[in-house]
Write a structure and sequence with these properties.
- By secondary structure, the chain is of the alpha+beta class.
- The chain has one domain.
- It is 48% helix and 13% strand.
- The strands form two sheets. It has a four-stranded mixed beta sheet with strand order 2-1-4-5, with no helix packed on it. Strands 3-7-6 form a three-stranded antiparallel beta sheet.
- Strand 6 and strand 7 form a beta hairpin.
- Helix 1 crosses helix 4 and helix 7 runs antiparallel to helix 8.
Length: 257
Amino acid sequence: MNVHETKSVPIEFSWVAKAYQKVRRGGKSPGIDEETWQEFEKEAMKNLYVIWNRLASGSYHPKAVRGVEIPKKEGKKRKLGIPTVRDRIAQQVVKDYMEKRIDHKFHKNSYGYRPMKSAHGALKQVRENCFKYDWVIDMDIQKFFDEIDHELMQKAVSHVMEESWVQMYVKRWLEMPRQEPDGSMVEQQGKGTPQGGVISPLLANLYLHFALDLWLSKNHPEVSFVRYADDMVIHCRTKEEAETILEAVKNRLKEVK
């Protein structure tokens, strides 16, 4: 096994091995190919080499995600898209590469799914802001992951990542269809990134960095905000200001969804 071959995409085998160690500790549910971690690990090195070879040659193409529903509060359900074991490893490789290069660009008050950030940190910041501001907008962007515009998402990726291979693989992941429990395939139709994907939280943060974080900081510097993924708290000084900001945010979301 030669892991030092020259490839068209500069991905190293060690990146794949490290990604495998990270994602194998995560979700246990198999994807549409029904391959489990136990089955994958029977020939782990061989399988990792295959993933690396395809990623590094540009010939890697993901399979459809497996659609599942999990219960939410009030009897509602959340749709998840479960990638295959191999696709999870591949996504982690690109996620690691991107995260090292773009995380520092994100707003300091973005706390969700980031290194050295946590929900506890977000709550602490919200508490501190409540001593300075009298009014709060508490918002949850409904169906955010389902509504992410692919064109705008790819534009955001190309803005921060000049590597064409990163853009290529992100595009392929965005376009993955979802296999429903009845076996039917649902195409993405130019929008959405599956909840359950390894790279989805990073892409969501990047999308909202441009869609809301930078926009709020530039156009409404008088307010403060804390965001955790698609949940956001905006702190305002007066009721009138809060009403104005809320309307502005609603209009902004219409522009970017």
